[in-house]
Amino acid sequence: MLRGAGIRRKVCLNTPVPRDWKNFLRNNENKKELFSLISEKIIGRAGKEIISTAGPTIRCSRLNCLHPGLQPCNHEEADTRLLLHAKEASQAGHKSIIIRTVDTDVIVISLAAFADINLEALWIAFGTGKDFELIPIHRVFNKIGPEKAAALPFFHAFTGSDTTSAFNKYGKKSAWETLNNFPEVLTAFQVLSNKPKDVETLMCDIEQFVVLMYDKTSSQTSVNKCRKELFTKKSRFFDGLPPTRAALIQHVLRCAYQAGYCWGQCLEKEQELPDPAIWGWTAAGDGEWAPNWSLLPEASLACQELLSCGCKSCNTKRCKCKKAMLKCTMLCKCEDCENGYKRTEHMENHNTDDDDEGNETANYTDDINEDL
């Protein structure tokens, strides 16, 4: 949800096309003015009925064009608004529709909403250049079935989308294979794709799905236990471990918000969106939202006994231990420490302990020799 600011430029007919197009589109005001200009000019084409959006309302090339099913509309994303227009066209008698896009989200939303649009054929003109292709949504829908189609929005958000994160080293192909091998999770995905009220009751199946995605042979049902097993018994590195349960819950919340509320209400002109703060997001200021990755504290804060410094004498404010208001320990590299740790004393005590242990060993050896 966080986006770069970009450079603000006034958009009008005689404005030169910016060289840095991506930077230009990062500014929301630039995009608003650009889309408003296109929306106004495109409906002037003669001989065609053209409907374009203008904020919450629409513009139409035909006079007295009302289309109450399209306005007022509060969709934040054009992806969902495309399907709302497709539904309106279907109700007007059109049975075959083509949607032009370069966004994978539109394909997913189209498959999930196809059963409710009442079309004979829905095509997606996807990609550009050599990668351009026509995707028959109606055929794909019939092939995967209505159950998987209804679960696709959450599956897509859960495995990574424009607004949700993905699992490290495990993409959609691995997740799809896991879904086919563990169809029990389909019900949970369907519920989370349609304005869910709660996620906690569904976490059992979702946890097991994640476990199987990371380790197909695992018998664990908890991601925390799976993390421990993969790390201690299978020598898996940290970047190959599943998320903690606390982090997974926040991820599920964000994905449920995106799939169940933003995409799940694509056929409703006025969406009812809940507070993002209770769905895995945290306010970042200026109307922006940032992911709430986990409710657990950072390891560096929760395990301060593992903190160490590399000072020589710890007489400066830069000492990590002093900053944390902790005494230095034997983990630190300091020698003449002024923060409560004396390495020389510790070494002397350690040597004394070694001597005592050596004396005990010698006495024990003498006793054995006497017995022999």
TrEMBL record:
It comes from the Eukaryota. Residues 348-372 are annotated as: Disordered. This is Tesmin/TSO1-like CXC domain-containing protein. It comes from Bemisia tabaci. The lineage of its organism: Eukaryota, Metazoa, Ecdysozoa, Arthropoda, Hexapoda.
